[in-house]
Amino acid sequence: MALLFEYLPLILFFVVYKAVDIFWATGVLIIAAIVQLVYYKVSTGKIETRHWIFAGIAVVLGGMTLAFHDEQFIQWKVSIIYALLGLSILFGKLLFKTNLVEKALMGLFSSVQKEQEVEINIPNAIFNQLLVLWVFLFLSIAVLNLYVAFNYSLDTWVNFKVFGLMGITFIAIVFTMFKVYKFLPEEQ
Known about the structure:
- Its main location: membrane.
- This is Inner membrane-spanning protein YciB.
- Plays a role in cell envelope biogenesis, maintenance of cell envelope integrity and membrane homeostasis.
- It comes from Pseudoalteromonas xiamenensis.
- Belongs to the YciB family.
- The chain has helices at about 1-5, 10-20, 20-45, 50-70, 70-95, 100-115, 125-150, 155-180.
- It has 2 domains: about 1-70; about 80-188, no CATH class.
- The model has no long low-confidence stretch (mean pLDDT about 90).
- By secondary structure, the protein is mostly helical.
C-alpha cells in the first residue's frame, strides 16, 4: 500500500492526462504532491528530503506549466529529478566518501539482519559497481527524458514517463538484486 501511495501522483497525472489534458494533469500532480506531503507529516511526523524535493519541483515547474500554458516546464521535471539523484550519488561518493547506494541497500536489508540475527557482508567492490550503474542510469534517464520530450509527441512522452521509466527502473532494481543476492543469508 505504501508503494502505491508513493506513486499516486504519477498515477493520477497519467489518468487525468488521458481523460482531459496535460494542464489538468499537471494541476492534479501539484495537488497530489502537496497532499502526499501532508499525509507523510500527519502519519509519520516527518517528511523525508526526497519528498520535499519532488513536491517542490512539481509545484514550481507545474506552476510554470500552468502559468505560461506551456507543457515544456513539466517535461523538464523528470530530467531535473533524475539528474539530482545521479549527481547526489556521485557527489556523495566524491565529496563525502559515502556510497549512498550502499546506505540505501543496507537500510533495506537491516530488517533481514535483525530477524535472522546474521550479518550481511557485501564487498565494497559490488557497492561501487552499483554506484556507477545508478549514477549512469539516473543521468542517462535525465538526458533520455529530454530527448523524448522534445523529439516526440506529448502522448509518447507521457507514456515514456509512466511506463518506460518504470520499466527501466525495474530492470535496474532486478540487476541490483541479482548482484547482491549471493551475499544475502539463505532463508531458514
